[in-house]
Every structure is written in structure tokens, then in C-alpha cells.
Amino acid sequence: MNAVPLAPFALTVNTLSCLMSMTSPKFDNNGRRNYEGYQVLSISNASSQNGLFDIQGNVLQQLYSSDKLFNFMGEGPNKNGPTDVMICPEQANNVKSLLSAYDIPFTVKSANLQQNIASNVNENNKILAESQGTMNWNAYQRFSTIQSWMDSMASQYPQFVSVETYGSSTEKRPMRVMKISASGNDGSKPIVWLDGGIHAREWISAATVTYLANEIINHAKSGDDTDLINSVDWYVVPNMNPDGYEYTFTADRLWRKTRSKTSNRRCFGVDPNRNWDWKWGGKGTSNNPCEEIYRGPRAASEPEVSSSQKYIFSIKDRIQLFISFHSYSQLLFYPWAYDDVPADDKDDLEKVANLGAEALEAVYGTKYRVGTPPQILYAAAGGSYDWAKGVANIKFSFTFELRDTGDYGFLLPPKQIIPSGKETLAGVTAMVQSVMDYYRDN
Ligand code: 0X9
Ligand code: ZN
After folding, report:
1. Which architecture does CATH list for 8-111?
2. Would you place residue 369 in the very low, low, confident or very high pLDDT band (cuts 50, 70, 90)?
3. Most confident among 9-18, 20-29, 228-237, 333-342 (mean pLDDT)
4. Is the CB of 386 inside a 6 Å radius of any atom of ligand 1?
5. Does domain 131-441 correspond to CATH entry 3.40.630.10?
6. How far apart (Å, rounded) are the C-alpha atoms in residues 98 and 66?
7. 25-34, 276-285, 356-365, 413-422: range with lowest mean pLDDT
8. Is the CB of 195 under 6 A from ligand 1?
9. How far is the CA of 295 from the centre of ligand 1 (A)?
10. pLDDT per position as a tens digit, 285-305
11. What InterPro entries does the entry give (predicted)?
């Protein structure tokens, strides 16, 4: 990557970078991270067609990596849509004048991020209070509510729902999978794997995954005997990062990583989607524990990741379709993520993804782009679905980046859970069908 040429205005960057906000964030008296004065900018990529993206991308990358002026909301310059960045109060004016000096167009999406967080959290809390800890899809639910719901499904429908604990997190929360086998889990049928919540702040991911599981249970209850219910078993993990997820409710709505201790006593957590044991430490990862894309001290250092790897590996021969859910940007990725290299079976993967995106769009017109992360966003090594293909040898492995494209971003209003669930169910259904067709013919 080329360094950004040193222009005279670069000298105006003052020494107070956002590093302080990264290593010593401000918390309220009630222990909650406060984002007062943080801003979100949407940086246009209008010039991506004529090759200017690389220059802009380099400027952004340089501002980020050497000066720590901001954090990416989606973790890197985005080749597809605009790139959203979060800037700390100390540097808000500086970043804006630097962008203007480099002729990089941007809009201010949020002039005070704390306000957006407060309205998202207040709206959700109101609905949670009304439902008093019982599961529903009108609000984003706490970890314990999701877990109790899984247990209650298993006790109400023991003929086809069961729950297994396969590991435990750094803070000793259980890693649990819900298995839905309408025709009895006799160990013979192909498995569809769905996981959510690996990034803590991506609330819509866990919510959508539980929505899908609930719908599948409803179909099984009503005696639906389509292939989707009768010919596959569903293995669903709504919370791949339980500690991080709870931390977003109790302390920091925008927390992404796990909550393990690191070599830096001020900085916690590893990016669990950079920690899997396939091409670990490669592109799009960091060895700095204070960064959002910290890969951890070694592959599978996180108990959440190592237990998931072990569990998935033990059932890998039955998994025909593996899907991890993230947000946001409305994208559907097929491998590889670690580098811009085509998978040998790219055509098979692309076909399934395209059918999924089309079926999803048919519900409400929500558009998803299909491709690989290096083509659409950026390369990122050590992610779950690359591991599923590379190590566990699961041919059909995908990642969704769910709603939206940035209007609300991670702070997606709870009203969108059900619509997101409905359209995603249509997309996943089409993908399952297409994978089953593939194995029937091959
Ligand atoms: O950076 C990520 O991990 C994902 N984007 S997110 O904004 N949800 O953090 C992209 C995942 C791409 N896939 C893999 N690297 N496996
Ligand atoms: Zn994510």
C-alpha cells in the first residue's frame, strides 16, 4: 500500500489522536460507555469506477492505521458503498478538514452518536420492559432470555428440538446449539448450520437467527413435510460471543469483540472473526489488542472460537450448508475472505448465493450484493466461514451482512427484526433448496 503523500496540511494534525479514546474511553457514573460528541461520517466512493478508490482507500487506511483518527464502522474502506467511519470528539474537525483537503467527499451521518445510541437503547428497553423477559421478536433480547427460550422450545417439543452446551465463554457463559430435527435426529440427515452474534454489537444477527429457528419450529409443529423440514436438521447458535453480547447491553452498545484479557491491561477482547484457525494472522487483521480487528495472540485463542471449531469439526461430514450472520451492509459473501483468490468451485457457490439473494429480495425488495469480501469490502483472514470451508471442508459456506445499508447501521430499530427475519428466511430457504439440488445431481 502506498503511503499518503505528506501534504502541508497534514502538519495540522495535532498529537491528541483518538488513541486516548480507544485506550481510555469515557464511561458514565452508571458504568456505560458514553459516545457524546462522537460523529459518524459517510465517505462517498463515487470515484470507485475510475480507480480513485485506491487513493481514497489509502488515505483512509493511513489516517486510520498511523494516526488513529477514527474507527471504521464496518472495519475497513468499503469498495461497494460509502465507507462509514466513527470519529472521536477530539479529532472531529481535523478529520473533516483532512478529507476536504484530499477532495474526499463525505456527509455527516451523525453529529452526536450518543443520541442515536440512546434512542435505539431506549426504544428497545421499553419493549423489553413490556414483555418482562419473555421471548419475542419485537425487541432485541438479552442472552438469558434467548437461552431460556431455547430450553422452553426443547421441553415443549422434545420430539424435534434439543439443546446442547458444547463450550463456555471467557466469562463462563455457555456456548449452546439448538438442534431442530422435525423427523427425528437419527444422525443421518444433512445439517444446515446457522450462527449469529459473533460480533457483539450486531444485534440483528442474533435476532434474525432466533427468528429463523422459531419459524422452522413452527413449520415442524404444523406438520409441514417439505424437504426443508423433513430432509435436513438445523443446528442454530444464536450467540457465538455471549460475553460481548451482554456487554453491549450493560456497558457499551458498540462493543464488537470478545471480553478476554489481553497483553494490554487497558484493552480487552479479540475479534472472534479474525481468530479462527485458517490463514490466521493474514490480511485485514491486527496484532494490536486495542484495535477492533485484533486477531488474538494465537489462532483459536478465544474459548468461544476453539469450542465452536471443535464442535463443528465433530459434525463436519454432515454439514451441507454453513452460514454465519453479521450486520450491516446487505451483502451475501461466498469464500474466500482471506485473500482475493477465487475458490475452485466459485461457480457453484455463486449460484447458491445468487438464488438466496434473489429470493430474499422478492419478499420486500431489499437488495443484497453477492460476492467475496475482497471484491466487495476488504480481505479479512481468520473468519468463521473461511475456516468452515478451508478446514472443515464444508463446500457451501457463506456469510450474510444483514440490514441495513447504513441509515441506522448497528443501531437498527427493533421494528425491523421481523421484516429482516421474513426476508432472510426466504433467502436461506432458497439456498438450502439449491444445495440439496446440487447434492442430488452430483
Ligand atoms: O469484518 C468482518 O468480520 C465482517 N464485517 S463486519 O462489519 N460484520 O465486521 C466481514 C466478514 C467477512 N468474512 C470473513 N472475513 N470471514
Ligand atoms: Zn460482524
Report:
1. 2-Layer Sandwich (3.30)
2. very high
3. 333-342
4. yes
5. yes
6. 14
7. 25-34
8. no
9. 13
10. 999 998 889 999 999 999 999
11. CARBOXYPEPT_ZN_1, CARBOXYPEPT_ZN_2, M14A-like_propep, M14A_act_pep, Peptidase_M14
For 356, left (φ over 0), alpha (ψ -120 to 50), or beta?
alpha
Q: Give start-end residues of each CATH 3.30.70.340 domain in the chain.
A: 8-111
Q: With a 6 A CB cut-off, is 74 part of the ligand 1 pocket?
A: yes
Contacts of 422 (CB under 8 A, 6+ apart): 363, 364
Which residues does 419 contact at the CB level (< 8 Å), separation at least 6?
Answer: 364
Q: In the chain, where does the domain assigned CATH 3.40.630.10 lie?
A: 131-441
Q: Is the CB of 201 inside a 6 Å radius of any atom of ligand 1?
A: no
213 — pLDDT class (breaks 50, 70, 90):
very high
Amino acid at the residue 395? K
Cα of 380 vs centre of ligand 1, distance in Å, is 7
Task: Find the mean pLDDT for residues 18-37.
Answer: 85
Whether residue 246 lies in the annotated active site: no
At residue 15, the pLDDT reads 46
Model confidence over 60-86: pLDDT tens digits? 666 665 544 556 555 556 666 678 888
Q: Which residue has the cell 475472505?
A: 337
Rounded distance between C-alpha atoms, residue 235 and residue 237, angstroms: 7
Distance 327 CA to ligand 2 centre (A): 6
The residue whose CB lies within 8 Å of the most ligand 1 atoms, and thus the one to mutate among 75, 84, 256, is 75
Q: Judge if the beta carbon of residue 397 lies within 6 A of ligand 1.
A: no
